[in-house]
From TrEMBL:
GO terms for molecular function: oxidoreductase activity. Pfam families: MPAB_Lcp_cat. Keywords: Oxidoreductase. Coiled coil: none annotated. InterPro entries: MPAB/Lcp_cat_dom. It is an enzyme of class 1 (oxidoreductase). Residues 20-250 form the ER-bound oxygenase mpaB/mpaB'/Rubber oxygenase catalytic domain. Its EC number is 1.-.-.-. The keyword Oxidoreductase applies. This is Oxygenase MpaB family protein.
Length: 312
């Protein structure tokens, strides 16, 4: 077949995936900050971050690099996703950390550490999206978790060793919970996320905007994370209302406006694949963007989203 007649590359996931729809939602930014809070509770994992970068000076860059990786692997071509994964693996292979108590030197690419980072991200993305009002049947939530065995492979994990359903994800967190603690490194991350350094002229904006977003991300953490950080968990119903309200407000911003932010991954994917590839989380409840296949939802009651939706 001539190259000009070949079908465009849908990438690692493609428009028929749950991931394609979920990752277009603006609440992903809140979810990303929640993931940072959660990841910081694994002492060995967060130590690798703190000993290999000046987190306080580069936290914004770290957040943007993560967002760029997620955008590339979700909406870029297969080649672009593979390149991004290779780049991450190469960087991780060169980095190590030292346990200050034992003197042990270990690599930041140890599978248990990569798995913790991966699971904290996927759990945060899924939790915030569903709890903020996007109706996602249980079967599609399981499918989302399973799809991300592909992204796990990109960072160097064996997909067969990565949770492939929400039940397996919950079991993983139950197993790893005894290893978690809010040590000095976690406290440093917490302090930064609550009060990030900024230009004096931007201090009012930090108080008005950033602190609200960071507080909401923190509030959405599981109860055990609040206990480890030492702050009282806010009432779950109140947090859910805040998440739904914030999601509702952010989703009123036209998608085409939001997607203009660099590096415009979604617009690039739509240009490559056509307007039918336009992602939208609401399609998850209707199921019109999700092709038939293993794990397709057979009911439309929103799964456990009923737990998180406010009355009325």
């Amino acid at each position: 077949m001539p190259e000009s007649a070949q079908e465009p590359d849908p990438g690692l996931f493609g428009p028929a995936s749950v991931t394609w729809q979920v990752h277009s939602d603006p609440m992903m930014w809140v979810a990303g900050i929640r993931a940072l809070y959660l990841q910081a509770l694994h002492p060995r994992a967060v130590r690798g971050v703190m000993q290999n970068s000046d987190f306080r000076k580069d936290a914004w860059g770290r957040l943007m690099r993560t967002a760029r990786f997620v955008g590339t692997t979700t909406y870029g071509t297969t080649e672009a996703a593979e390149r991004a994964g290779a780049r991450v693996r190469k960087i991780h292979a060169m980095l190590g950390a030292t346990d200050p108590d034992t003197g042990e030197r270990y690599g930041v690419d140890e599978p248990p550490l990569l798995l913790w980072v991966h699971c904290a991200e996927i759990d945060s993305y899924l939790h915030v999206i569903r709890r903020s009002g996007i109706r996602m049947p249980d079967a599609l939530a399981d499918r989302y978790v399973d799809e991300h065995r592909r992204s796990a492979r990109l960072v160097g994990l064996d997909p067969g060793q990565v949770p492939g359903s929400t039940a397996e994800l919950a079991a993983y967190f139950a197993r790893v919970r005894p290893e978690l603690a809010a040590g000095p490194d976690a406290r440093a991350v917490d302090d930064f996320l609550r009060r990030p350094p900024t230009h004096p002229l931007l201090t009012p904006a930090r108080a008005l905007l950033w602190r609200r977003v960071a507080d909401l991300a923190y509030a959405s953490l599981p109860p055990y994370a609040h206990r480890l950080y030492g702050r009282t968990a806010p009432p779950a119903a109140a947090v859910t209302r805040r998440l739904v309200r914030t999601g509702t407000i952010l989703r009123t911003i036209p998608a085409r406006v939001r997607w203009q932010l660099p590096p415009k991954h979604i617009l690039g994917a739509m240009a490559r694949l056509g307007p039918g590839s336009r992602p939208a989380p609401y399609k998850l409840d209707r199921g019109d963007a999700i092709l038939d296949g293993p794990g397709r939802a057979q009911r439309g009651d929103g799964g456990d989203s009923a737990t998180w939706r406010t009355p009325g």
